[in-house]
Design a protein that fits this description.
7 strands; 36% strand; 175 residues; globular; alpha+beta
């Protein structure tokens, strides 16, 4: 697992404010599809944990702006490689962002959200925040990134927590 001088902390910070270990920076700053990158390491699968329509947290509302004040579809999944959990993800999709051509984002099931975000017209990632703290399942410490995407002019948030198993897999395969 990559070393870090940063203590576990629940606060998201702009990526550029942190000094990250090179391997971590490579993954957290990658502008491409996490799904595509994980597929390079083995058989990829999405396991849905929960889909619910709720009001986003206050922090999520602030990151989404005016459109985030209403209700949103919150989707939580685990991304597996060779049946081993590698990433836990939480997507916050404001209901106002799921209208018209974006309505397919509300029905992802066991499909990767990344497969839709990187389909034409591609979503634009306009902000990235990072943290080093507990994953939703309680695994700690782990690195996480939260990205705000704009898809067809509408915002959505995706938080990904990179589990220790991912770093072991990457280091083993890169040897």
């Amino acid at each position: 697992m990559p070393d870090t001088a940063m203590r576990a902390d629940a606060r998201w910070r702009p990526q550029e404010q942190l000094s990250l270990p090179p391997l971590v920076r490579d993954w957290l700053a990658d502008p491409g599809s996490l799904t595509a990158r994980l597929r390079l390491y083995g058989a990829f699968r999405v396991v849905p944990r929960e889909d619910r329509i709720i009001r986003p947290t206050l922090a999520e509302q602030q990151l989404l702006g005016r459109i985030g004040r209403g209700r949103a579809l919150v989707r939580e999944v685990t991304l597996l490689v060779d049946e081993q959990p590698m990433v836990e993800a939480r997507s916050v999709l404001p209901l106002a962002s799921l209208r018209g051509p974006n309505r397919g984002l509300a029905h992802m099931g066991s499909r990767s959200l990344g497969s839709e975000l990187y389909r034409r017209p591609m979503a634009r990632r306009d902000r990235i925040w990072v943290r080093h703290g507990a994953a939703p399942s309680g695994q700690t410490p782990c690195w996480g990134r939260q990205s705000r995407f704009i898809k067809r002019g509408r915002p959505l948030l995706v938080a990904e927590h990179f589990l220790p198993a991912l770093w072991r897999r990457v280091e083993d395969m890169d040897r």
